[in-house]
Design goal:
alpha+beta; 8-stranded mixed beta sheet; 8 strands; about 60% helix
Amino acid sequence: MIAAKSAIVKGANIWLFILLFTVAIILLCSWLVVQSEHYTTHSKLLSLFLTIDIGLIIPLIYYLIAAKKLRAPSVTTLVIFIACLGIATIILPDKDQFYLDKLKYLLFVTELTLLIYGIVKIRSIRKTYAEFALQRNDFVWSLTQTFQKLFGNSIATSIIQSEVQSLRYSLFFWKIRDEVTPGDVTFTGYKNNSYKVVMGVIGFVMLIELFSVHLLLWRFGMIVVVIAFILSAYGILFLLGDFIAIIRRPLSITESNTFYLRVGLRWNAEINISNVDSIVKESSKTEKIKVGGLNCVLVGNPDCILILKEPVVVTGYYGIKKVTNKILLSVDEPDSFIAEINNRIASESGK
């Protein structure tokens, strides 16, 4: 069973890698062409090819892989098309955007289609999300259930969902309270280790890098500076969102004996206690047990190891999935957590 699940997950991850790698190569080559000496003498012809590559070929590749292979909603191809036109505008010099300007005539139809689609879907999204939010006080879980119900379980929807989650936790962090459902028993994993210190240092370094290092990139042109700035800012937002999610989304065990693995925005899974074989506290004797396990530790060594009877699929950022039957965890009160899990196992065995 674990082999079958791993094969399915591996296949999806391979297609996602092919998509991202191909797009990255096209964009990198396009930028290198514009920076080359040959572009100046053949700008008209090369600008046509680059416009086609970025504005049409990338959306086509996305459609063939994401929509056909990964079951993403076909309408997301229109979003990619708009994004590609924006990228082409940045890469191509202003004087060489003749063909790109012609392609932009399609923007009106594209944006109108997306607007109509959005109006139709937004009400369904809000209504469905509200229904799931009543069941559990967990934004990530409720949003995941909403997207899966309305759009299916595809890589594209997982990516959009991950971006929404990251922006929500990073940009509106002051509004977010502990996401705990009444009746659940919860355990944190960030208080009794150096996680907060490590993240503080990383965040401080990234803030300095955001401004100082980019000054050194001016000689490579505005495009490089803008791209580097966007990537750095995105990295800071991602780290902040994950940090807030780790604080506000503790590990949770429900009254119905379901263990919700919640490690920030990194890993999420629903595990029935009846599927738990055992749980052990980390020690020198558990080195062999840890081999092959999914590392959900924030910093340092794990506090305990959850061993399952049957493998489960753990979902990560951008819909990345891992199949495992062992999970390495950071828990502030490992003894209490182990005792709670063992009590739940005993209660399941007595049914």
